[in-house]
Specification:
alpha/beta, four-stranded parallel β-sheet, binds zinc ion
């Protein structure tokens, strides 16, 4: 059964509350506040049930009534529904009792959680009648827009800082997109894209289509709750670039509670940043709502947004939930990437190292309760940021192709032949 009609009511300004019709707009014309999609949840209560959701294909679209498109998704029909991994080895190392990895490093098709937001943004762009899509990206978004646009037959442009990791540039270029490298940081790229969006009339997924795009992140939250056996975690650790993911995970939990799909357990939300770009975690630690923009300097380039669009809202969601935020150094990022790989067999990119590194720090600080459930959101794949860890991995030992040579190596390792 499909509940066909859309329950999207309007776009609403997050500052002054003024409502707007559903259109490719993202800023309030009165107060310049950001616009957010609002829904008529009452129409879904008792109709969108656990059984109905479970009966559907395993993709992010099994929650489609809570995503802001009118018809069936035209882009990314198979995206999402990544594994939630019970991390028992990591539990032992960190001394916690119930830890899960939400593993979006294997999200389809481009190995990052951006495939969620992009499939919503591009499906909506098609509904609006756009034929060219674009984005300002720190890397993962560029690859996801390029791939999903290619599959949907849309023309795409992606704008990136000139100094991105090669894996990310290659991982966008392969799809035949038009890559524009900007001589500047992400914040410069973003500024330019706002101007291009206005002048060229394209659907910029994170500019004029941003309210719809951002809603796609909620699917990560829905999946996490369904995979926990229809329960919200007590604690969730989320990486922060713009800060949007924090606010959308919070929204996903509140929506499931409203629809009676999970109980309200008072989930605490924890935000993670790299120390070299930590405007949101600093604001949270200082008990302030003021986000002071910074010039980013970190190996976690996918999180390197010095002037985060949703920073204020993320810091408020974190504080209101009773959570906290922290940041970690580049060395701690690399150590956490290795820890996740060596304990759970999951290779994450630098952003994942930030998230797990911060989780570890907050557990040691006692901010995260060791005896309550914890979900750590891993949002991207390590094969895209190999530069960050190449020095930390021992190179292969080269020997000649003889048993004698291997015997010597084995002896050095303290390993004896059988029998
Ligand atoms: Zn407003």
């Amino acid at each position: 059964m499909e509940l066909r009609e859309s329950i999207v009511r309007a776009l609403r300004c997050r500052e002054c509350g003024k409502e707007y019709p559903v259109a490719p707009d993202h800023v309030c014309e009165f107060c310049f506040g950001p616009l957010e999609v609002v829904y008529d949840y009452d129409r879904l209560v008792g109709r969108l049930t656990r059984e109905l959701i479970e009966s559907r294909p395993r993709s992010m679209w099994r929650y489609r009534e809570l995503l802001p498109i009118d018809g069936a998704p035209s882009v990314g029909a198979q995206n999402g529904f990544t594994p939630l991994v019970r991390a028992r080895n990591l539990e032992r190392v960190l001394g916690v009792s119930e830890l899960y990895i939400k593993n979006d490093s294997v999200c389809y098709p481009t190995l990052s959680f951006k495939d969620r937001v992009v499939s919503v943004a591009l499906s909506k762009a098609v509904e609006f009648g756009f034929t060219t899509v674009a984005c300002a990206s720190t890397g993962n978004l560029a690859g996801s827009v390029a791939a999903n646009a290619a599959a949907a037959g849309l023309r795409s442009y992606v704008f990136i800082p000139h100094d991105l990791e090669q894996g990310k540039v290659l991982g966008a270029g392969i799809f035949g997109t038009r890559i524009v490298g900007i001589d500047g940081a992400y914040d410069d790229v973003n500024r330019l894209c706002s101007e291009v969006a206005g002048k060229y009339g394209w659907a910029f997924v994170n500019v004029n289509v941003r309210p719809f795009y951002a809603e796609g992140s909620k699917s990560l939250g829905y999946e996490m709750m369904e995979q926990l056996g229809w329960r919200a975690p007590k604690q969730v650790v989320v990486p922060m670039a713009s800060g949007s993911l924090c606010t959308k995970i919070d929204k996903s939990i509140k929506e499931f509670v409203k629809l009676g799909l999970v109980e309200d357990v008072g989930t605490r939300i924890f935000g993670a940043q790299a120390t070299g770009c930590s405007p949101i975690s600093r604001a949270v630690r200082e008990g302030s709502d003021l986000i002071h923009p910074v010039k980013a300097d970190t190996i976690a380039k996918s999180l390197a947004i010095g002037n985060p669009a949703d920073g204020y809202y993320a810091s408020r969601v974190i504080r209101d939930s009773g959570g906290w935020a922290e940041d970690v150094s580049d060395e701690e990022v690399v150590a956490a990437i290795k820890l996740l790989a060596e304990t759970e067999g999951i290779f994450t990119e630098t952003a994942g190292g930030v998230t797990l590194g911060v989780a570890r720090k907050l557990i040691e600080q006692g901010r995260i309760d060791r005896d309550e459930s914890i979900v750590v959101c891993i949002t991207g794949n390590g094969l895209k940021t190999q530069e960050a860890v190449v020095e930390a991995i021992a190179p292969p030992r080269i020997i000649e192709a003889s048993l004698r040579a291997f015997d010597r190596l084995a002896e050095a390792d303290g390993v004896r032949p059988a029998g």
